[in-house]
Amino acid sequence: MTVSVSASPAEVTDLDLVRLAQSGDAEAFGELVRRHRRAVFRAALACVRSPDEADDVAQEAFVAAFRKLAAFRGDAQFRTWLLAITWRKAIDRRQSVVRWFRRTAGPAHDWSDEAVSEVERLPAGERSPEERLAADELQRLLTRLIGTLPRKLRDALLLAGTGEHTYQEMGAMLAVPVGTVKWRVAEARRLLKLKMTALGYGHE
Amino acid sequence: MDEAIDRAVRRMVAVAPRPGLDGRVRARLAAAAPARRVTGLRLAPAVVALAIVVLILNTLPRERREDAGAAAVHRSDASAAPPQSWTVVPRQSQEAVPEAEVAASSEPPAAGVAAARHAAPPPHDRPVEAAANPRDDTAPLPIPSPAGAPSTGRAFAATPRIAAGTAVEAEPGAAAEVPIADAAPGRLTITPLSVTPLQITPIEIAPIDVDRHP
Q1: For residue range B176-213, what is the model confidence (pLDDT) as tens digits?
Q2: What is the distance between the alpha carbons of residues B77 and B160, in angstroms, rounded to a whole number?
Q3: Which of A94, A104, A110, B183 could cross-link B210 (Cys pair, CB 3.0–4.6 Å)?
Q4: What is the DSSP string of B1-47?
Q5: Residues of B with CB under 8 A from a CB of A
Q6: Could you tell me the pTM of the whole model?
Q7: Is the ipTM of this complex over 0.90?
């Protein structure tokens, strides 16, 4: 193989990088990490719902992928394979007793106070203070309602909300057909709207 | 409503990873490699111990390793074993001899007794426990098969007086009428103590209670 990572990294495909990494090129695997770190992190975050734990899960997923890299034959996309590993690691983390104890004994995680990506923040100049206050209140309420959704529906909704994963990738992660993923996302939205309506926040 | 939901969801999951994730992954990979080497080193003493045990087993004398196996063969099917060579080692005491084995026999000597043949005990044989009986007897020494069947004709080869260190050929477990000392012939049971396929091995012969013979 004549592919070189340093020569033209943008033109090198994932499969090329995988082949290089399988032959012992550590830099090639580093490039794979750089390419997919955000998708991996957000997939983990959709599952464990804590940025610190998601960072930890992402590291574990990359390490596991590196160890299993020799078994990767290229039948599927590397990214899909990596995301499936990530989701399994995240599920393990979510189900771990230690994490349950930490969440139970420690302070609850407040999503509204998270340092969310700046691009997702509402432009403050276009709204009045009352409107911003109402919008923040609505966001907090929706965050709580999303937390009350059934786990399968919530996972699909949050994965779709990352904007990083296709339905095929989500189906591979959740081990369900694409149609099931779409139905779960739609059902999660329907339930959220029902709850919001019941709370007087608008009509369908 | 849809827009509010989308915004809330994005706010929950559209978070950028902290900078340096690839560096942390690299550090984890670097830390994992020595851990695997240490795991391999931890197994090294067990591998060395196993190698020592195998080495010891291989350097043991062959006869000692085969003793146990031969005894098992004798216990399982003594009559089916082919005739082999034995070295007679008289026992000093007769207390352990069963009554049936030392009962006097009036049967005439069986035909087909093989010619006497002397053989020196092999160097690995255990030491002779007693000196040869000084008393003499020249009667032949037939050895019927254990089940009372006729002798095979190649069952026995010994001097008229079974002396310590004498080599005999007999089927394992065969009984022999052996004239010893001044008494009439008595029935002895040849009981092989061990069997080796290539060399003569020591056996024990139950001594005759000469007082019981007429």
Answers
A1: 544 444 333 444 444 444 443 334 444 555 555 555 55
A2: 29
A3: B183
A4: -HHHHHHHHHHHH--PPPTTHHHHHHHHHHHHHHHHHHHHHHHHHHH
A5: 1-2, 4-18, 21-22, 24-26, 28-29, 32
A6: 0.52
A7: no
